[in-house]
Structure formats: structure tokens, C-alpha cells
Specification:
alpha+beta; Beta-Lactamase; 17 helices; 12 strands; flat
Length: 696
């Protein structure tokens, strides 16, 4: 629709008409505005002349005060906005508004007064206001008040409203715009009708005729007489259609004849082509038969090759699976080995895991003492059972471990019958059939060996299993070394702290040997109550160190004879907390610290320092409380004598369920009645070294 020729013509003409009329309207508006300013200037001139004449008349008779009245009378006209008389400095002398007299004009107006030298000049003609200044000449009538040398005595400022003039101009503009719009609409309408009749309708008629011709109707003709040009176009179109009709008839006839000839030629040619094609296809079939025989032979050879490759691939996949399984097993063993630093548990874990992984009947670790030239068997697992732990054996040239340590390399003995240099029967009491042994090396130092002997299925060990054992040995050596160092470090800490406790007790004859006796009592109670080994270790360490906090108590208070004051008791009761703070930097003594901090708590929750209830106390703390209290009762102290064994037992029984755990009291009384620590129940002497029987 928007691509229509008539619309384009109408649009171009409309744009031109609108542009011309708009330019004419703008020019007329500018001319009217100029005329308005000229009218305002002429009106201002007339008004100024009238005012000046009145002012001169007043000045002639010396009536200067009448100037304000003259200005006020003139101001009564609605088109006058402002009338003022100002001096050269911009100060208002006379005004229609008495409140302005004496004020100073704005700086913008002062600048105009200073720069303009004309007798009358326009200040502004904007915002519908026409402002102008006129100089008041210094005539002879004014010489009485003003010096004759001055050309003028003041300036008259006038501001006129221009709304009335503007209103007339706007009405004229509205009329002009309305006329222009009507003219534009009429021109466009007439032009559109002209194009519709003389251009659009003939062209549509021609297009319709052309569509008939396009569909194959050559009988169509046009007769357009709207203009000479359209008539000529219509005549030429009819001639063209007639010529095209003749050409089409001739072409159809020629094509029919040509089609008949081509049909005959094609039939003959097709017959020849079919014969040639048959001959070629026969030759191709013969070639295909030969090629097919060759391909069958190639396929048979390829089948044999594929079968060989499949067998080889299957073997490689099996080897790869075994390698992945070995790596996975080594990784899991590494995680298990590094999961503990308890040396005994580590030995068992390494041997059991290795023996299970390698399907071995026997496994063991031997530690090497280079100075003493001795081997120590940490553990030996045979048939799933732990045998001969800690056994020491001499270094022999015929021993497998001796050879591995001497040569610093792993050893594989698939069949002991083929290795006569080694003993068939081990010092550990088993018969060797097949074995592998690897050194435990840490930073070029051989600390021992790990061995697995005799497979469960009576097969022989192979090189892959030797590699796996070597890898396990490398990880195990580091773990054993770390665990040994950690164990030595723990023992060094404990020995140091125990030395401090012994030093404290040595300074007081009353408490000498107290920690050792409490330790014996506590360990025996724990053994009777079937505490696991790790809790027994915590109990033993806590018993040895339970009074370490007395380092922070004044010695004079510890050795004080006579009754203790409440203040002394409160100070003494601080030693569990002091002990916790002393041992706080030692991380592995965390449960030991807790036990030490609770060994003066009571079963009924009334103990010190935190008044913990029985459910908040460790079992080891409650055991230590019974052992410590019993030794304190049966030992001399500076402020009292020791109780007899009978009285001490009575105290334990009387305070069972309040101060002491009743179950622990029952176990301890049973131990004492068995005479393990005292020779007889009737012995009334305090506990000392002469009455102690060491628990084997």
C-alpha cells in the first residue's frame, strides 16, 4: 500500500506545499513581531514626550513634587506597567510606587545606563513587556535646581504591557494557520482525485489486461483515452499482445514437430544404449565375482586377526584390572595404616591387612636392632591368630630377614626347596614353603622387615605380589617410624611430668610414694572392671599425674601442721584446676586432664571444683577418687595420723553412694579383702612400702 505511485506523488506534493506555506507563515509572524516592536517604540516615544512636557511645565514653576503625581496620572492606563525617574547612578528618584523611591535598580539595568549614550534606548522587548529609557534634557527651566553644564538631569524608565498587541498578532497567526491548513487539504485532495482518474485507473486497467495475457488469454485488448500518453500506451500494448499471440502459435507448431522427431530419435538411441549397458553390466558382474572371491579370502584372514587381537586384548584387560585392584588395595592399606598412631595397633593392622591382601597364611613384622644385632618380632599372625608377640631372635646368615637387611632389597622365594641357602623351618616355629620379604626403610635407615609366608591355596608367590609388598612396606615403614617417634615423645612428656610429681612428693615425707600407690590401686580397679586398654592407659596416666596441680600451692600450706582454716582449704581445692592448666598444652593428655580435674568431685555432685553430678564425671575420675581418698586415709599427714585399715574400709562403706561410686567401692573392697595390697585385714598400720605386694 505504501509503495503506491499515487501516494508517493501526493506525499511529495504535500510536503512541498506544507514547507512553502510554513515558510511564508513564519516570515509573516516575524514581520508582525517587528511591527509590534516598532509600534511599541513609537508609543513609548509619544508617551515620553507627553510626560517630559508635563515635567518641564512643573519644573518651570518650581513644582518638583508634582512629578510623582504626573507619573501616577499617566500610570492609570492599563498598558503601562512601570514609570520611574532614576539618576545616573541607578537610584530611583520618582516612581508611581512610593515604596521604590530611594532604591537602586538591578545591576543589569545599571549596566545598560552606563554603556548607552543615546537619548532614548530600548532595554527589553521580551516576556510581553516593552522597557525603555529616555533622558530628561536639562532645559533653562531646570537650571534653577540643576547645573547648566549637564546635558540631562535624569532618565525616565517606561515599561509597557504588550499583551493587547500580542493578542491581535496571535489571532492573526491563528487565522493564517487555519487558512494554510485548508489550502493544503484542498491542494492534496484535488491532486489525489486527479491522480486517481488520470493515472491510477488507466494503470489498473493495463495491469488487469496483462494478467489475462499472463494466464494465456491473448484475445484481450485495451482502449484508454483519458490522455494522449495513456492512449499511446494502450495502443502499443494491444500491438504487443497481437505479436506475442502470433509468436506463441508458431512456437507451439514447431515444438510439436520437434517432439515427434525427438521421440523417433530417442527410441532408436535408447535401444543402442540398452545394448551397450547390458554388455557393460555383464563385464561388471564377472569383475564383481572375481573381487568377491578376493574379499572373502581377506575377510577370513581378518577374522583370524580379530580373534588374535581379542585374545590379546582380553589378557591386557585382565592385567589392567589386576593392576587397578592392586593400586586400590595399596591405597586402602595406606589409609588404614595412617589412621592410627598406636604402635601395637599399627603393627597388627599392617600385618593383618597385608596377609589378607596377599592371601598369605602367615605374616609378621621384625624390628632390627643394629647395635645388639638382634631381631624383635612385634607380632606374628598365623591362621588369623596373634602368636609370640615381642619375641627376640638372633641375626643368622641363613635367615630371610638377615639377607634382606644385608642386601637392602626385597626377596621373593617362590619355592623354598629351590633356595637351600635359607632355613626351611623358621625360628618362630613354622615351615616355609613360599615367601616374600621386604625391608622397612626410612631415610636410608633399615628399621626392620615385613614378611608373608605360605599362600592359603598352597600356590607360589609371584613378582607382582613382591612389588605390592614392597609398596606396602614403604608406607608401613613411615607409619611405624612416625608412631615410634610419637610414642617416644609421649613417654618423654610423661617422664618429665612424673619427675615433677616425684620432686613434689620427695619434699614431703608424708606424701612420698602417694602417686605410685594411687596408680597401683587405680590400675587394679580398672582391670577388675574390664576397662579397654586405651582407657586403662588414661587411668594410669591420670593416677600418676593427679596431684601435678600442687606445684602451684604454697609449700608451707602443704606442710602445715594442725587444723586447716577455710581459707587454706579453698586454696588447696584449687590444685585440680591448676593441674588442668599445666597439662593444657599437651594435646594427647586431653582425657587425662579431664580426669585430673574431676578426681575430687563427689558421686552426689557436692565435690569440687565444679560440683559435677555422677553422669557428668568420667568413670576413670570416679575410680581415681576412691583410690586417692583411700591412700590419703591410710597415710600420715601433718595435720592427722593415718587411719587403720578397718577404719578406712568403714569410711569407704559409709560414704558409698554419696562421696564414692558404690560399684567402684565394692570392687575395691573385694580387692583389699583378697590381700593384694595388704597382708591382712587386721593390719592396723598405715599403708607403706613394707606392706605392699606388687601386682604381677
Amino acid at each position: 500500500m505504501f509503495n503506491s505511485l499515487k501516494l508517493k506523488i501526493v506525499g511529495v506534493v504535500a510536503v512541498l506545499v506544507i514547507a512553502i506555506i510554513s515558510i511564508a507563515t513564519l516570515h509573516n509572524y516575524s514581520h508582525q513581531k517587528t511591527m509590534l516592536v516598532d509600534v511599541a517604540e513609537q508609543s513609548t516615544g509619544i508617551l515620553v514626550e507627553s510626560i517630559l512636557t508635563s515635567i518641564h511645565s512643573a519644573m518651570k514653576f518650581g513644582h518638583t513634587a508634582e512629578v510623582n503625581e504626573i507619573l501616577s496620572r499617566v500610570k492609570t492606563n492599563d498598558f503601562i506597567k512601570v514609570l520611574r525617574v532614576v539618576d545616573d547612578e541607578g537610584q530611583i528618584i520618582h516612581s508611581t510606587n512610593p515604596n521604590e523611591i530611594g532604591q537602586i535598580l538591578p545591576l543589569s539595568k545599571q549596566g545598560v545606563l552606563a554603556t548607552s549614550k543615546q537619548q532614548q534606548f530600548v532595554y527589553s522587548s521580551q516576556n510581553d513587556v516593552f522597557a525603555a529609557f529616555s533622558r530628561i534634557p536639562n532645559t533653562t527651566e531646570c537650571h534653577g535646581c540643576h547645573a547648566a553644564s549637564k546635558s540631562y538631569i535624569a532618565l525616565l524608565e517606561t515599561e509597557l504591557y504588550m499583551q493587547n498587541f500580542s493578542h491581535y498578532i496571535k489571532q492573526e497567526q491563528s487565522a493564517s494557520i487555519s487558512s494554510a491548513i485548508i489550502i493544503i487539504i484542498l491542494i492534496i485532495g484535488v491532486l489525489f482525485l486527479f491522480l486517481m482518474y488520470y493515472v491510477d485507473r488507466p494503470i489498473k486497467h493495463l495491469i488487469k489486461s496483462m494478467q489475462h495475457v499472463e494466464s494465456g488469454d491473448f484475445s484481450v485488448s485495451t482502449n484508454i483515452t483519458s490522455s494522449n500518453e495513456m492512449k499511446l500506451l494502450s495502443t502499443n500494448f494491444n500491438l504487443m499482445v497481437n505479436k506475442l499471440n502470433e509468436l506463441m502459435s508458431t512456437t507451439v507448431m514447431h515444438e510439436r514437430e520437434l517432439a515427434r522427431a525427438q521421440e523417433k530419435l530417442i527410441h532408436h538411441h535408447e535401444t543402442q544404449l540398452m545394448n551397450q549397458k547390458l554388455e557393460e553390466q555383464l563385464k561388471e558382474i564377472e569383475n564383481l565375482n572375481i573381487s568377491l572371491e578376493e574379499r572373502i579370502e581377506e575377510v577370513e584372514e581378518a577374522n583370524y586377526t580379530v580373534a588374535d587381537l581379542a585374545s590379546e586384548l582380553e589378557q591386557k584387560n585382565m592385567n589392567l584390572k589386576q593392576a587397578v585392584d592392586r593400586l586400590s588395595t595399596i591405597y586402602k592399606i595406606g589409609l588404614a595404616i595412617n589412621s592410627t598412631i598406636d604402635i601395637d595397633r599399627l603393627f597388627n593392622l599392617i600385618v593383618r591387612t597385608t596377609a589378607t591382601t596377599l592371601n598369605a597364611h602367615i605374616g609378621y613384622i621384625i624390628l632390627y636392632d643394629a647395635e645388639r644385632q638382634r631381631f624383635t618380632v612385634t607380632n606374628l599372625i598365623g591362621g588369623g591368630k596373634l602368636l609370640t608377640p615381642g619375641k627376640s631372635i638372633p641375626v643368622k646368615d641363613s635367615g630371610v630377614s638377615s639377607w634382606v637387611i644385608k642386601n637392602r632389597q626385597p626377596l621373593l622365594v617362590p619355592d623354598i626347596n629351590k633356595a637351600p641357602q635359607f632355613d626351611r623351618f623358621s625360628e618362630l616355629g613354622y615351615e616355609r614353603k613360599s615367601l616374600i620379604c621386604a625391608p622397612l626403610i626410612v631415610k636410608d635407615e633399615i628399621i626392620g622387615t615385613i614378611s608373608v609366608v605360605n599362600k592359603l591355596d598352597d600356590s607360589q608367590f609371584v613378582s607382582d605380589e613382591l612389588e605390592m609388598l614392597s609398596t606396602i612396606a614403604a608406607q608401613a615403614a613411615i607409619a611405624i617410624k612416625n608412631a615410634t617417634l610419637y610414642d617416644d615423645q609421649q613417654q618423654t612428656y610423661l617422664n618429665t611430668i612424673q619427675a615433677l610429681v616425684s620432686a613434689i612428693e620427695a619434699s614431703d615425707s608424708y606424701t612420698r610414694g602417694h602417686s605410685e600407690r594411687v596408680t597401683r590401686y587405680s590400675v587394679e580397679i580398672g582391670r577388675r572392671m574390664n576397662l579397654p586398654s586405651n582407657r586403662m592407659q588414661i587411668l594410669e596416666r591420670a593416677a600418676v599425674l593427679h596431684d601435678i596441680g600442687k606445684i602451684g600451692i604454697d609449700l608451707s600450706l602443704l606442710h602445715k601442721e594442725g587444723k586447716l582454716t577455710p581459707k587454706d582449704i579453698r586454696e588447696l581445692q584449687q590444685h585440680p584446676d591448676i593441674g588442668i592448666k599445666i597439662l593444657e598444652p599437651i594435646q594427647f593428655l586431653q582425657d587425662v586432664r579431664t580426669c585430673i580435674g574431676q578426681h575430687h568431685e563427689r558421686y552426689d555432685g557436692l565435690g569440687y571444683p565444679k560440683r559435677l553430678g555422677k553422669d557428668e564425671q568420667l568413670l576413670e575420675s570416679r575410680i581415681l577418687a576412691v583410690a586417692d581418698s583411700f591412700d590419703a586415709m591410710t597415710s600420715d599427714r601433718p595435720y592427722r595420723k593415718a587411719l587403720s585399715l578397718e577404719n578406712a574400709l568403714r569410711e569407704l562403706t559409709d560414704n558409698s553412694g554419696t562421696q564414692f561410686d558404690p560399684e567402684i567401692v565394692d570392687v575395691f573392697i573385694t580387692i583389699l579383702e583378697e590381700g593384694i595390697f595388704f597382708l591382712s585385714r587386721q593390719d592396723s598400720l598405715p599403708f607403706n612400702e613394707s606392706t605392699c605386694e606388687v601386682n604381677a
